[in-house]
Write a structure and sequence with these properties.
- The chain has a two-stranded antiparallel ribbon with strand order 1-2. The protein has a two-stranded antiparallel ribbon with strand order 3-6. The protein has a two-stranded antiparallel ribbon with strand order 4-5.
- The protein has a domain of about 160 residues.
- About 55% of the residues are buried.
- The protein has 18 helices and 6 strands.
- Helix 15 runs parallel beside helix 18.
- By secondary structure, it is mainly alpha-helical.
- Keywords: Metal-binding, Zinc.
- GO terms for molecular function: metal ion binding.
- One of its GO terms (biological process) is peptide modification.
Length: about 425
C-alpha cells in the first residue's frame, strides 16, 4: 500500500469517527472547547474542511462542525488569542472560504474587525512596555497566544494589511536589546519561566528559542511576510539578528546541530550553555521548528548556505536514534505527525539532495503513528480516545491533518497550517 493511500486513509478514518458534533460519545463537551483550536471543535472542523476540499468527504460535514464552533458567543479582546476565541474561529472559517470563495464572508468580516482591534491594542501595549524598558511576557509575542500568532492570521487577510504591518514593526523592535541591571538582554528575553509564570528554576528569566513560545515564531513570521512581499523598515536586519543569536547558541554534534530550548540568565552571562542532551526535534521546540524557521529566513534574505544547513539539520536529526527515541507520541505539536509534516514542508523548498533525504524519512515517521500495524480504523479510534482529546495540537485531528498533508490527495494550495507558521511560502524575492 502506498504512502499516499495510507496518509489520506488515516485522515478519513479519523474524520469518519468524528462525523457529527452532536455525537454524545465524543470528549468535546467542555464549554470552552467550542472555541479551542488547540483542543476542541475548530481543529476537528479544520480536518473536515480539508477532506472536503480534497473531495474525500462531503462539505456538509465541515459545515456541521463550523456551525458548532460558531453557535455561541465568541470570545474577543484580551481573553482571546490565536488558538482560542475569535482568531481561532476566524482561521478555520478563512480556510473554508479559501476553498469555497464567498462562503462565510459575513462571519469573517465581523471576526476580522474584532481581531484587528485586538491587534492594535496589543501592539500599542507592547510598544508602551518597551518604552519603559520592561521585559515582555511570552504571551505578548509568541505564536500560540501572542502577536506572532495574530500576525500569521493577518498575513492571510487582505483587509488586515495595516494591522499586519504594525505587528511586523513591533516584531522588528522586539529584536532590539533591552538594558536591565547593567546587562544587555535580547529584546524577547522574558522574566518568567517557559510556562509563562515566575519560576525559581529561572532566576533572571530566560530567552526562549522555540516556535510555539520563543523567538523562532517571530523569525518565521517575519520571513513569511518578506517572502510574500510585505516588508517594514528594519525587517531583513531583524531576521539577520535573530539568526545570528540562534547561531551563537547552536551546538554542533555528531548528529548535527542542536539548539537549546531556552537560555538561562546564568548561561547568558557566561556566554555559553551546556551541549544539549538528546532532545525531541519537534515543531514547538527543537530542531524541526528551528530548521523550518531558518530555511524561510534563508529564502527571505537570499542566504544559500543557511538554506542548505537548515534542511541538513533536520535530515540528520531524523536519522539520529537518540532524538527519535525522545519523540514518544504521535501528535502534531511534538510528535511523529509534526515531524512528518515539517519534513514534507522543508523538502518542498530544499535543494534536491536534501529534499530526497527528507522525503525518504516521511513514510517511517508516519508508520510510527501506528507502530503495531493496527490499521487506520483502530489507530483513529485510539487517537480519538487518548488524552487530551481529538483536537489539533496534541490530538487526532492534528495527526490526521499531518498525514493528509503528506499525501498527494491534499490540496496543493491549502493553508490549514498557517496557524503553525508551517504553511508553504510564496517566493517573490527569489
Amino acid at each position: 500500500m502506498s504512502l499516499t493511500y495510507e496518509g489520506h486513509e488515516l485522515a478519513v478514518a479519523v474524520a469518519d469517527l468524528l462525523t457529527h458534533p452532536d455525537d454524545p460519545s465524543l470528549p468535546i463537551h467542555q464549554p470552552w472547547w467550542r472555541q479551542s483550536l488547540a483542543l476542541g471543535v475548530p481543529g476537528i472542523a479544520l480536518l473536515h474542511v480539508e477532506l472536503a476540499a480534497a473531495g474525500l468527504r462531503p462539505w456538509q460535514r465541515a459545515h456541521h462542525w463550523l456551525t458548532a464552533a460558531t453557535s455561541g458567543p465568541v470570545t474577543t479582546g484580551p481573553d482571546s488569542h490565536p488558538f482560542h476565541g475569535a482568531p481561532a474561529l476566524a482561521h478555520v472559517l478563512a480556510c473554508a472560504a479559501a476553498h469555497q470563495p464567498g462562503s462565510y464572508a459575513r462571519a469573517l468580516d465581523g471576526l476580522d474587525t474584532a481581531i484587528a482591534a485586538d491587534a492594535r491594542r496589543r501592539v500599542a501595549a507592547a510598544h508602551a512596555r518597551i518604552d519603559v524598558g520592561e521585559l515582555p511576557a511570552l504571551a505578548e509575542f509568541d505564536t500560540i497566544r501572542g502577536l506572532t500568532g495574530l500576525g500569521a492570521y493577518l498575513l492571510r487577510r487582505p483587509s488586515g494589511e495595516k494591522e499586519l504591518r504594525s505587528v511586523l514593526e513591533y516584531l522588528v523592535r522586539l529584536t532590539t536589546p533591552l538594558h536591565r541591571d547593567g546587562e544587555a538582554l535580547p529584546g524577547w528575553w522574558t522574566g518568567s519561566g517557559p510556562n509563562g509564570r515566575t519560576d525559581d528554576r529561572f532566576p533572571g528569566g530566560h530567552g526562549n528559542t522555540g516556535v510555539a513560545h520563543g523567538i523562532a515564531g517571530p523569525l518565521t513570521l517575519l520571513a513569511l511576510a518578506a517572502l510574500q512581499g510585505v516588508l517594514v523598515p528594519g525587517h531583513l536586519a531583524a531576521i539577520t539578528t535573530v539568526c545570528a543569536w540562534l547561531d551563537r547558541w547552536r551546538s554542533d554534534t555528531d548528529a548535527g546541530p542542536i539548539w537549546p530550548y531556552w537560555i538561562t540568565r546564568a548561561q547568558l552571562r557566561a556566554g555559553h550553555a551546556p551541549k544539549p542532551s538528546a532532545q525531541r526535534p519537534s515543531w514547538c521546540y527543537g530542531t524541526a521548528g528551528l530548521a523550518h524557521a531558518q530555511q524561510l529566513a534563508a529564502l527571505a534574505t537570499g542566504d544559500p548556505v543557511r538554506r542548505v544547513a537548515a534542511g541538513d539539520a533536520l535530515a540528520r536529526a531524523l536519522i539520529d536514534p537518540r532524538q527519535l527515541a525522545a519523540t514518544t507520541d504521535p501528535s502534531l505539536c511534538h510528535g511523529y505527525a509534526g515531524l512528518a509534516h515539517i519534513a514534507h514542508r522543508i523538502a518542498a523548498d530544499a535543494p534536491p539532495g536534501t529534499a530526497a533525504r527528507l522525503d525518504a524519512r516521511v513514510p517511517h515517521l508516519l508508520r510510527m503513528i501506528d507502530p503495531a500495524g493496527a490499521g487506520p480504523r483502530r489507530t483513529a479510534a485510539a487517537l480519538i480516545a487518548a488524552a487530551p482529546g481529538p483536537g489539533l495540537l496534541e490530538g487526532a485531528a492534528g495527526v490526521a491533518l499531518a498525514a493528509l498533508s503528506c499525501s498527494t490527495a491534499s490540496t496543493p494550495d491549502s493553508s490549514w497550517d498557517s496557524c503553525l507558521l508551517t504553511v508553504r511560502p510564496a517566493h517573490p524575492l527569489k
